[in-house]
Amino acid sequence: MSIAFRVNGRDVSVESEPDARLLWVLREQLQLTGTRYGCGTGLCGACMVHVDGDRAFSCQTSLHEVAGRSVTTIEGLSPDSSHPVQKAWLAESVPQCGYCQSGQIMSAADLLAKTPNPTRDQIVEHMSTNLCRCGTYPRIVRAIERAAKEA
Q1: Region(s) of the chain under CATH 1.10.150.120
Q2: Complete DSSP assignment for the chain
Q3: Is the CB of residue 151 less than 8 Å from the CB of residue 116?
Q4: Could you state, in chain order, the average pLDDT of each consecutive group of 10 residues for the chain (151 residues)?
Q5: pLDDT of residue 79
Q6: Are the C-beta atoms of residues 51 and 61 closer than 8 Å to each other?
Q7: How many Cα atoms within 13 Å fall on the side-chain side of residue 66?
Q8: What pTM does this model have?
Q9: Which CATH architecture has domain 2-77?
Q10: Are 37 and 60 in contact (CB under 8 A)?
Q11: Among 1, 16, 35, 122, which is least packed, fewest CB within 10 Å?
Q12: Entry's PROSITE patterns (predicted)?
């Protein structure tokens, strides 16, 4: 079955089963490998993308759910890594192993798009959907605070 949607500003049509997970379509068919597989159950956030401007676990989103909609992956957040969250991530030296970072950044960008000046409690609450096994949570919070100030 052919399913059409928009990814990172580009119209695409993919041949796949409608219940195929968006994560695997992005990674395997569209070669957008910045979105990571973590747990496969929507508990870690490594696979976070935006669907019509709202964050979504791509491992739990079926392809038919994005038909006719707009998907943004980490590759589409900004073409030159100039998004305030990406710049703050580097300034605060957030990445350690880096595996969860694309999902963390997508969640942080979602938060700041909806709440431009979040409190620390709002940041912690919003980011609780994303796990970092390296424990860089203090740096993540500082980066989001910095991005909010610099945006």
Answers
A1: 84-150
A2: -EEEEEETTEEEEEES-TTSBHHHIIIIIS--TTSPPS-SSSSS-TTEEEETTEEEETTT-BGGGGTTSEEE-HHHH-TTS-SHHHHHHHHTT--SS-TTHHHHHHHHHHHHHH-SS--HHHHHHHGGG---TT--HHHHHHHHHHHHHH-
A3: yes
A4: 97 96 98 96 97 98 98 95 96 94 98 98 98 95 97 80
A5: 83
A6: yes
A7: 38
A8: 0.96
A9: Roll (3.10)
A10: no
A11: 1
A12: 2FE2S_FER_1, 2FE2S_FER_2
Q: What are phi and psi of 132, to 5 degrees?
A: -125, 110
What is the location of CATH 3.10.20.30 in the chain?
Answer: 2-77
Q: How many CB atoms lie within 10 A of CB 5?
A: 21
The predicted pLDDT at position 108 comes to 98
